[in-house]
Amino acid sequence: MKKYSIILIAFIIPFITFAQTDEPANDTPFIEVTGYAVKKVVPDEIFIQIILKERQENRETITVEKQLDDLKNALTALGIPLENLDIADAAAEYIRVKWTKRDVVKQGEYELKVKSAEEVVKVFEKLGDLDVEDADIIRVSHSKMQEFKKEVEVNAISAARDKADYLLAAIGQERGSALIVKSIDVFDDSGYLLYNSNVRGSRANDVSYYQDYQAKTITKEFIQFKKINIEANIYVKFEIVH
């Protein structure tokens, strides 16, 4: 048993010595810092989900196609380009309706992009006039989002550089070349809604408004969008020079 133990140790020691000598030494002094930047922008892209359902009025069937034509005419009257209206579900859905004699009812799902709170108000007023009861503000964004994200990343790395400079100045050192640059996180909160918002008058985190249930109108002074936060964190490892 003793002989086996001695032989095992004899094999391990050369291996460890080899591993230590094989790794190159790096004596370059360095400093590690993280830079943070944020930009707040008012959204100019507001996306509204609209669901049109076939319904009966005075023994007349109001088809999805008829409602869609009315919606397009209303958008044209508001000056909203029709290319801003997309089909969310290319194939029309069919759902069972238990309270009518018919087995199914046709349903079309669409997504509309508008550019301001004022247009949101006008659209929801038109939806009320058209008796559309299923519409939600599903997300907000900005048309220059990618440009803003690049700007914030540049500001974050500049913040990291400045931080390294004043920290090293305190000990009489200077910043050298960057050894490592890593983007930790680039984030925007444009896709987050805490509450559902629809034509029946509930409130959302990104948009809130007052709904008159009888007149189905939304008063402009009660609609408000919060700004989108675009944030970036950049990690940088700088060489220290004397």
Protein architecture, described:
By secondary structure, the chain is α+β, with helices and mostly antiparallel strands. It has 2 domains: 25-43 and 143-242, Protein of unknown function (DUF541), domain 1 (Translation Initiation Factor IF3, 2-Layer Sandwich); 45-141, Alpha-Beta Plaits (2-Layer Sandwich), CATH 3.30.70. Helix content is 31%, strand content 37%. The chain is built from 4 helices and 14 strands. The chain has helices at residues 2-22, 64-78, 117-129, 145-169, and strands at residues 30-41, 45-53, 55-57, 60-62, 85-87, 93-96, 104-114, 135-141, 174-188, 207-208, 211-212, 217-218, 224-225, 228-241. The strands form 5 sheets. Strands 2, 5, 6, 7 and 8 form a 5-stranded antiparallel beta sheet that branches. Strand 11 and strand 12 form a beta hairpin. The protein starts with a helix and ends with a strand.
